[in-house]
Amino acid sequence: MINTVYVIAGPTATGKSDLSISLANKVNGTVINSDSMQVYKNLEILTARPSLSEMKNIDHHLYGYVDGNERYNVEKWCNDAAEIIKKTNANNLTPILVGGTGLYINTLINGLIDLPSIPEAIKKESEKILEDFGKDFLINQIKNVDPQSLKEINHNDIIRLRRVWEVFETTGKKFSEWKLNENKKFITNYKFKILLFLPDREKNYQVVNARFLNMMKSGAVEEVKKLLELNLHNSLPVMRAHGVPEIKKYLANESTLEECISKGQQVTRNYVKRQHTWWNSSNL
Fold it and tell me: What is the pLDDT of residues 165-182, one digit of tens each?
């Protein structure tokens, strides 16, 4: 028997959460988060996590359940999501994935290159290389060991650049060689019905501008202040969430409130632009 998983996807601030609740009421569904930042319990406001009142009548999973000191990633999410999907079906409910992190959704559907785990020390080393020497130095390092992977990566994609370097440093084997292996699958015998939100990009920008301003009025500065009190390493994903670096600078008196808001809106718009590009070119 092939079970159905609904996927409500698309750029941030497009009404996906509202639709998920409406759909869940119609198909006896349960909602599963597929946003890479809404998993963190430390950030509720800045990640626009659904409120308790919004979640009260429908079961919601994988929201705010990971500590910021954990380096959560796509493989961990796929394992967690697969487990929830199987339990949901066993209870005769319909799983509904909701979020804008295309990588998470694509990996759950198509599988993941079966790579070994990267030691924390190697991840910190790649972060330090970027901080001390810059992106071009890292690109040249990769060019010396794995030029094939470099051809297949946007040179502005820092995360993937670091990954290629980290894999070689950890294993002594090229990322391009690891890719030749069969993908690791997380779930099978499921049919995915994808509902994709792709609104006008300029209107999407206006919505995220207004939403970021509302986040600031709703306590985002205090939320980041509490996060900083944990003294987490800057390379952790939660520390790179949109708005966190900008508010951190404001709290350190390195920018004005107006500059903080403007920059926070800008980085969010940049992310929305990348999301539009990703989903427009996606083969899902």
Answer: 999 999 999 999 998 888
